[in-house]
């Protein structure tokens, strides 16, 4: 299946790589070793990558000049001889614009550093119908360009739905089909634009700044419900870039009609908005029963992929009103009953502890990965 390379994993070498390919590959390897907060000397980078001293020196020199890396002091003494200079990711010079399209009535954006940490913020309130166009996104980006104190290396847009090479193939939340976001925005600003599914953006943050490991099933419950799967540090994208669209898998063929055209989709039972509406006027006992039922539905939906892919870590992101102990315990209960065996490690369901910037930060990381792979 197609996949995107993650930081933290060296890119594969090509047998017939051009000098530019080799240089790009070496940049990725070195950046991956340092991201997000590691510090190594040139000598240590050489030992870990197998690159020659000349190759490391050449690549590091370019990355220092470019603003990707910085020198941060002297390495600890390892006996006689001159101590090496430590290198780390430079968070002071280069900037990224990151846009979150997942909120119903608000466009949220930030200027971030190379760790995806928001430095400046801007937003645009949408009309009651929640319509979003490339022009509205351009207006938000223009606001943020004036806020940046460094060179912008890329624009990232995180969108709900199926995303394929800058085009949102389908988004039931936005009512989009085959909407090219990357081209008009890139043409307007002359800056590379990366468009990413929102669950993949979120899983990037959980992977590098949360508790996620290289193998994980990530679920995001908000207006809709989506997921992302990591296997050996690689997100599973799918043949049609629709892997993770768990919200539009039917759990009841005679259930309520979904905007996608099917009936009984998981999203019609488990989206944060639907659960909050159901609990609004319920008693405490009724609210807990609603959450237990919802948790069992999620466990039902996740048992098959967890068992099929032998995943032991399931991380759920959502508002505490919904993703709480009652909900997670019900999900855990179903998974234990469905997947526990002598040859499958116990699958643990846990709450994502990353904050409200999970989409913005993750999309900035997606921009960095794209930048390293193409420059």
Task: Provide a short characterization of the protein structure.
InterPro entries: ATPase_NBD (IPR043129), ROK (IPR000600), ROK_cs (IPR049874), WH-like_DNA-bd_sf (IPR036388), WH_DNA-bd_sf (IPR036390). With 375 residues, the protein is of the alpha/beta class.
What report would you give on this structure?
This is NagC family transcriptional regulator. Residues 1-20 are annotated as: Disordered. InterPro entries: ATPase_NBD (IPR043129), ROK (IPR000600), ROK_cs (IPR049874), WH-like_DNA-bd_sf (IPR036388), WH_DNA-bd_sf (IPR036390). Belongs to the ROK (NagC/XylR) family. With 375 residues, this protein is of the alpha/beta class. The chain folds into three domains: 19-89, Winged helix-like DNA-binding domain superfamily/Winged helix DNA-binding domain (Arc Repressor Mutant, subunit A); 94-202 and 358-374, Nucleotidyltransferase, domain 5, CATH 3.30.420; 211-351, 2-Layer Sandwich (Nucleotidyltransferase, domain 5), CATH 3.30.420.40. The protein contains eleven helices and 16 strands. The chain has helices at residues 19-34, 42-49, 53-66, 134-145, 182-189, 198-209, 267-270, 272-279, 284-309, 325-339, 358-374; strands at 40-41, 69-74, 85-89, 94-100, 106-112, 118-125, 151-159, 162-164, 167-171, 176-180, 193-197, 216-221, 225-231, 234-235, 313-317, 348-351. The strands form four sheets. It has a five-stranded mixed beta sheet with strand order 6-5-4-7-11, sandwiched between helices. Helix 9 (284-309) runs parallel beside helix 10 (325-339). The relative contact order is 0.13. Mean pLDDT is 92; it is low at 1-14.
């Amino acid at each position: 299946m197609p996949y995107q390379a993650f930081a933290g994993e060296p890119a594969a070498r090509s047998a017939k790589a051009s000098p530019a390919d080799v240089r790009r590959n070496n940049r990725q390897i070195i950046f991956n070793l340092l991201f997000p907060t590691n510090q190594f000397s040139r000598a240590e980078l050489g030992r870990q990558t197998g690159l020659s001293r000349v190759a490391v020196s050449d690549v590091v020199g370019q990355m220092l000049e470019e603003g990707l890396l910085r020198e941060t002091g002297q390495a600890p003494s390892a006996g006689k001889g001159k101590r090496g200079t430590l290198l780390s990711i430079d968070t002071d010079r280069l900037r990224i614009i990151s846009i979150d399209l997942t909120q119903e009535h608000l466009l949220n954006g930030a200027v971030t550093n190379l760790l995806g940490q928001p430095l400046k913020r801007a937003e645009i309130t949408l009309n009651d119908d929640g319509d979003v166009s490339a022009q509205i996104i351009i207006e938000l980006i223009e606001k943020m360009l004036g806020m940046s104190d460094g060179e912008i290396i890329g624009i990232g847009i995180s969108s709900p739905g199926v995303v394929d090479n800058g085009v949102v193939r389908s988004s039931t939340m936005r009512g989009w089909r085959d909407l090219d976001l990357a081209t008009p925005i890139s043409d307007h600003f002359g800056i590379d634009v990366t468009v990413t599914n929102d669950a993949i953006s979120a899983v990037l943050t959980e992977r590098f700044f949360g508790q996620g490991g290289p193998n994980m099933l990530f679920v995001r419950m908000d207006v809709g419900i989506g997921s992302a799967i990591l296997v050996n540090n690689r997100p599973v994208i799918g043949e049609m870039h629709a892997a993770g669209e768990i919200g539009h898998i039917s759990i009841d063929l005679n259930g309520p009609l979904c905007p996608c055209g099917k009936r009984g989709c998981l999203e019609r039972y488990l989206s944060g908005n639907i659960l909050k509406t159901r609990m609004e006027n319920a008693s405490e006992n009724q609210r807990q029963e609603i959450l237990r039922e919802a948790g069992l539905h999620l466990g039902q939906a996740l048992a098959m992929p967890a068992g099929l892919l032998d995943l032991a870590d399931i991380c759920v992101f959502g508002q505490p009103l919904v993703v709480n102990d009652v909900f997670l315990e019900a999900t855990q209960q179903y998974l234990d009953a469905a997947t526990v065996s002598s040859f499958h490690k116990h699958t643990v369901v846990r709450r994502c502890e990353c904050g409200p910037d999970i989409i913005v930060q993750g999309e900035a990381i997606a921009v960095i990965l794209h930048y390293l792979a193409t420059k």
